[in-house]
Amino acid sequence: MKNTTNSLCKSFENGLNKNTTNKARLIAYVEKSEYIEKSEQPIICKQFNLTYLKGVFANEYRKRFYRYLYFNTTTTAEVSKQTKIPEKFLCQAKAYYEKKGLLQVLYSDRCPVTKSNNVNFLSTNKKLFSDNYKIK
Questions:
Q1: Secondary structure element (H or E) that encloses residue 104, with its range
Q2: Where are the alpha helices (DSSP H) in 33-117?
Q3: pTM attached to this predicted model
Q4: Rounded distance, CA 105 to CA 64, Å?
Q5: What domains sit in the chain, N to C, each tagged with a CATH number?
Q6: How far apart are CA 90 and CA 42, in angstroms?
Q7: What is the chain's percent helix, strand, coil content, to nearest 5?
Q8: C-alpha–C-alpha distance, residues 96 and 109, integer Å
Q9: DSSP secondary-structure letter at 118?
Q10: How much is the average pLDDT of 95-118?
C-alpha cells in the first residue's frame, strides 16, 4: 500500500512539474508572438499539452498595453492599431489599471486613428499623472 501511495505521489508530482514547464514554455511563446486571436488561443495551449489558459494571454496583453502607454500617451484605438490587440480587450485593461491607480486619462483630444473628438489620451507613466484632470 505504501509503495502504491508513493508511486501515485511521484506520478502526480511529475505531472505538476510537466505542467509547470509547459506553462513556462507557453508564456515564453506568447511573450514573443504578436497578438494571438482568441479563437487560436486554445489551440496554442493544446500544442503545449495544456488546457486553455486564458489568463496567460490576458496577462501578456495587459502588460503590453501598460508598457506601450508608459512610453506613449495616446488612445486605446492607437494602441490597438500598433499592437494588434483588440480595442475591446484594451478597454477592459484600461479599467483594470485605472482601478489599481496605474493608469490615468491625461487629457481629451482628437483621436489620431478614428479622428473622433474628445477622446481620452491615456498614460501609465506616473510622472505624467495629474491630480487636476477629471473625466467629464
A1: strand 104-109
A2: 41-47, 54-71, 76-83, 87-99
A3: 0.82
A4: 18
A5: 2-128 (1.10.10.10)
A6: 20
A7: 60, 10, 30
A8: 23
A9: S
A10: 95
